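#random but structural
TW: two for the price of one
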Amino acid sequence: MVNAAINDGTPHPTATARQAESPERARILVVGGGYVGMYTALRLQRKLKPELQRGEVEIVVVTPDPYMTYQPFLPEAAAGSISPRHVVVPLRRVLDGCRVVVGEARSIDHAKRTATLTTLASEEEGAGSVTLAYDELVLAPGSVSRTLPVPGLADHGIGFKTVEEAIGLRNHVIEQMDIASSTRDPAIRDAALTFVFVGGGYAGVEALAELEDMARYTARYYHNVKPEDMKWILVEATNRILPEVGEEMGKYAVRELRRRNIDVRLETRLESCEDRVAVLSDGARFPTRTVVWTAGVKPHPVLAATDLPRNERGRLKCTAQLTIDGVTHAWAAGDAAAVPDIAAGEPGRECAPNAQHAVRQARVLGDNIAASLRGEPLQEYAHKYAGSVASLGLHKGVAHVYGRKLKGYPAWFMHRVYHLSRVPTFNRKARVLAEWTLSGLFKREIVSLGSLEHPRAEFELAAGGKPQDNPKGSS
């Protein structure tokens, strides 16, 4: 029988009452199906296998998507090096010992141990939200894009955080090349071939580098579009890009991008993108049909709809044991959590919200929840940051790992090896490796499937309906 008591062995009144009502099962609610959510649930179903088999524990994972997206592979998916379906991991297959609920947590009342959810079924039924009770809570909703009140951004900006956005951006870039190839208006052509990326972190730099590589290759199949006709612009508000790889490697990355005629503008901000014109803080104006926003993330809004303590940045205050500070039976890790970085040896320093920490925190988190349920002592999370790797396109990259600095092909190769080792499941590893091997033997795919965004458009037109208001290529 699992003992759902707090860490010091004293039963929580609510938990005790629930055990009296339902003595055979303790429910662990995991909010989020990303890195932390999936890996924590996976760890729990392994560590608590005997309890799950006896029906003493139930693990419920609430996630808006039935899959986990391996985000470091999004740039390669956008460039066509990896199939989109191999960038995601189906949760129901991996978490076969858990109950996966496709929906979103709207609010959490931890004092009552209840979460308010909306699911696909509740929306169809018109029943509104549903309430789910729990005994242990794992909050891992991740983060959302951090936007600024830039005029025109909501109307014309494109994000780069989901696999849908990555594939949509690939289709969009190729469609802009189609527009440029077929128009006779030089202004439309210039705007179609101008691509502005805002944000010099991993997402922005890798997405721009991979797509520029892809577009430069694709241009050879257009009779009137050349690589030098395209303008690729990277806008970064600080004085460096890729701060995770260090100053020296960051400067090398800038030189490498500029060598490819990519316009890197440091200490510059996007002031406006109204009327499809990107206006920068340095006074430059670029007519463009493509503005990609990758300027940081912020905690998921559900954190504000809880009664749990947060810091000034909106992240949950956590202990080194990954419990939420001052609260029992509540846990967090990843982007949503402010976890002390005890390995850094600096008081007040927190773990960076990145995948490297998230995956390792999930392992400790799963172990600690299992230990808590069994009345065993908890362990602290401590991981010394190993370093970072970043791709700058095919066969190009930068890396700063364990004090060693690499660039060019060795860094690119290390980037692929590292992320191949990190992507979940042997199935995905094998498929990604097979696709990389085939892409090295054959030519790149240059197909745009923008019509996937409106799959019923042709049938609606044939059936007498009206064509889509947003036709292909107008985004």
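TW: number two ↓
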Amino acid sequence: MIEVLAKLGRGPVFLAGEVLECVITFTNPLSASSTSASSEMLAWASAQIHCQFHASENRVALPPSDGSKHDVQAENETVFVPNRGERGQCILSTPPKILFCDLRLDPGESKSYSYCETLPIDGPPSFRGQSVKYVYKLTIGCQRVNSPIKLLRVPFRVLVLHGLKDYQFPQDEAVAPSNPFLEAEEGLKKDSRLADLATELLMVATSRRSLHLYNISNTRGKVGTFCIFKTVYKIGEDVIGTFNFSEGDIPCLQFSVSLQTEESIQEEFQRRRGQPVSFSTHARHQEACLHTAQSSFSLPIPLSSTPGFTTNIVSLKWRLHFEFVTSSESAGNCLVRGSQSEAITWSGVEQMEVDTFSWDLPIKVLPTNPILASYVSQFSSTNSITI
């Protein structure tokens, strides 16, 4: 028996283009006092990153020729097929890397290997929607002699920030002394620079503030105004907005604001023409606001949510969905005077004619620092298997 432990040291969330590093440890759990006859042998171990794509048959019509093209190629090249038994299609994979061949472990002995691979920068982000799913996994395969292959799958999350693909790092290595022993160090340096660049780009994009004022009105007149200071956010931020009903001609009885994502299939892949868009609500604020001059809301964008993106099959957009309930009468008629004495009490009317209308405001949601997103990730940094 051999225990295989895979650990992602920095956490299970990465930016596309970063280097994923995983330490894989093989251990013989028997006591060191056992005889040498209890030694364990492994023929080989290999690791590979792949992205699985799965689509809902009721919503997405995929070309039948796409089938399992990647699986056939992998079976022709090697017996190690990381996506074997997985749902959907393997749309992206890195070259497999051999960790070792012919490993012998004595009782109580363990060996560790470091697997490093750059995540493709042009791949899709991790996403679990109502129509499609993009799932990333690191699969480690190992085999005893004359035994079936065992697979250890390590799921992780990938965030995509547009703009990193076209950035060229300064070629400062040409003037530096050449040292072949520093290859790994230079790779980590470039990886850290990419993370710093992403953080800088996100800070610039989401820190710009400018006043956006919108008039809220229906067919009968003005209800109020809405104010928001920016429309570009990172996941983990709060969307804050304010209402001013004091200048409205139509009394607003109630309003609600929902933070939603809009998942739409590209027209050529739709199962039915004119197929409706799928909406998901991530946060909601509702408030009764009769005789309220000003009000506000704060909706958090979950760190576990997916930033907006577009692929050849699906696109995901974010929006604020507003719903307003207004009175057909003036504000003074919404209350009834209950007493003529010195202590005057007012009570609400029993029935009231109302109008309802909605409004959508598109916003842009970008990724955040992957280390921050790792704190709330549903994936574990450590995965293990016994073979």
